[in-house]
Amino acid sequence: MKFTIKILKNLSDTGQEICIFSDEFSSLLFQLSSNYFKGFSIRSYYFWRNKERPIPLSVVVALCKDLNLKFLEIQSFSIKGGNLIKFPKFFNEELSYFLGIILGDGCLIHQKREKRNSWCVQVTSSSLEKINFLESLVKSLFGADAVHYSVRTYYQMYIFSKPLVMLLAELYELPVGLKYDTIKVPEIVKKNNIWKRAFIKGVFECDGNIYKHRSGIAVQLRQKSKSFLDEIRLIGADLGIFFHEPYYDRANNSWVLWTCKKSVVDNFINKIIHHKIKLP
After folding, report:
1. Which of 80, 95, 167, 182 has its CA 20 to 30 A from that of 108?
2. Is the Cβ–Cβ distance between 72 and 60 less than 8 Å?
3. Domains of the chain and CATH, by start
């Protein structure tokens, strides 16, 4: 995936050094003398050039600034050569679905404990089958290994990775922490109807349900954030799925987006529930 140098600079200014593997950047190093890099050994230069060790982002950002580069193709990220995180070359429906899952039953976490910082993506589900699928999806999308734990009647999945948390926050404006009032539909999701369907499916699998309503059935999504449901309503309309405006459920302290109109429910089932998410 290509990343802007602005995003890379934001990542490089956050404490423990994030490093990268980049074929494009390694090729640039062949055009420069090792003397160009002050404060680093000649040995490090050759390791970076030959893609034998990850390159610190501080070095990458400084060189890109000197060369007036605006974008850089990056294969993977790590912390000091640890677990590698890769991103899909292009945004896709599987990633859109995963963003919906995170904004439904997940969150990005940064915890400070004495001298140690912990960064992770967390997703909660009552279904072990769902957790197993998400672990496979995470492996396919990011090359990362997720772990899960059983907690009473549900399961919690964790992906421990500072680069992944920071990239999801930077690229898609996901909040770090439990900030229900700040969540929103990522702008990139709105650019493609397939991505919209996958995203809504992810959110619905976490915060939605279908239930009997009078002589028919109704579909609903429940969230703490009204503005988020307003956005879901708008992208749903782009798909021909027309919900009522969200209403406030005082008893459950949440907002509800719903419809019981048969044609709309049928359309939702066909375009969202029956939309298959396959591993990349």
Report:
1. 80
2. yes
3. 2-79 (no CATH), 93-180 (3.10.28.10), 193-273 (3.10.28.10)
